[in-house]
Amino acid sequence: MTPGEMKAAVDAVLDSGASTPDDAQAGAASARTPPSATGEPRPFEQPELGVSAGEQKLATIELLDDVELNVKIELGRTEMYIEDVLRLGVGSVVELNRSAGDPVDILVNDRLVARGEVLVLNDNFCVRINEIISPVPEFATES
Q1: Residue 78 is part of a domain; what is its CATH number?
Q2: Contacts 24+ apart (CB under 8 A), 34-40
């Protein structure tokens, strides 16, 4: 088929009103197609506005309101031999790696999230948070 015959065949198909692949996806797809070859602009179609990202985030956080977490306050650590552990009894003293007045670690699900100081309030121990530990992204990517 010569180029002239091919052009005539294409013109015949277009003149007959046969649908093109773009016509088959009219409607929602037309908003995604690029401008026509003639350069005529398409009318702007305003997308439907739904829930804002902030509202979605708040709703997602509210789902977690009743999730229980394991919170630990760590005064200090030490290493002991088994024989020393077996000798522990009432009145035994275990020396830790921190001094009195040093900040204590606050762990949530075994992850360090804050540091604070031990206080006594109404004859109960409590912890005042002095520092929030910023989370370090586990999968940081270099830009």
Answers
A1: 2.30.330.10
A2: none
**Residue 23 structure tokens:** 């016509």
Of the pLDDT bands very low, low, confident and very high (cuts 50, 70, 90), residue 106 is: very high
48 falls within a domain: no
- Number of structural domains (the chain) is 1
CB 115 within 8 A of CB 130: yes
- Average pLDDT (69-98) is 92
Boundaries of domain holding 128: 69-132
> HSE on the CB side for 100, CA within 13 Å?
1
Strand order from edge to edge, sheet including 104-108: 71-74, 104-108, 111-121, 124-132
* Biggest distance spanned by C-alpha atoms of the chain: 105
**Segments of the chain assigned E as strands:** 71-74, 104-108, 111-121, 124-132
